[in-house]
Design a protein that fits this description.
It contains five helices and no strands. With 136 residues, it is mainly α.
Length: 136
């Protein structure tokens, strides 16, 4: 802190030699005021630096938290992708099987038209959140 204040004072004196020379004589009160101003500027600079450092740490913690959430979401997405892949591949295999066996395909279509599952129980059997809700 003292080093920063001393640096500010030195810079003030180096950057303003013309104004110092233009005045005939500086009183001790003026010098004291210049010194106090330089100290106040140095303290304000240090306070701002500390505030920015605290903000930076908060942001780093938030980034780490968001990154953890992203990793969890990516893991869930991978799990969902795996389960839907297996379901889609089985469905494709059934479709291929039915295309290769027209008699079985006809029986399957008749079965679907009969709708052996009562409508009242249909909502209980189907999961509206599937495939986005994966049972563990």
């Amino acid at each position: 802190m003292r080093r920063a204040c001393a640096t500010v004072i030195m810079l003030t004196m180096l950057l303003a030699p013309g104004s110092l020379l233009a005045q005939e004589e500086l009183t001790s009160e003026q010098l004291r005021r210049m010194y106090d101003d330089a100290l106040a500027q140095g303290k304000a600079t240090q306070d701002r630096r500390n505030e920015l450092a605290r903000d930076n740490e908060k942001l780093r913690a938030r980034i780490a938290e968001l990154q953890k959430g992203l990793e969890e979401a990516q893991a869930k997405l991978t799990e969902i992708a795996d389960s839907t892949f297996h379901a889609r591949s089985r469905c494709a295999a059934i479709e291929d099987f039915l295309q290769a066996n027209p008699s079985i395909r006809g029986q399957w279509l008749v079965f679907l038209q009969k709708n052996t599952i009562p409508a009242a129980n249909l909502s209980q059997l189907l999961d509206a959140g599937w495939p986005f809700r994966v049972a563990h």
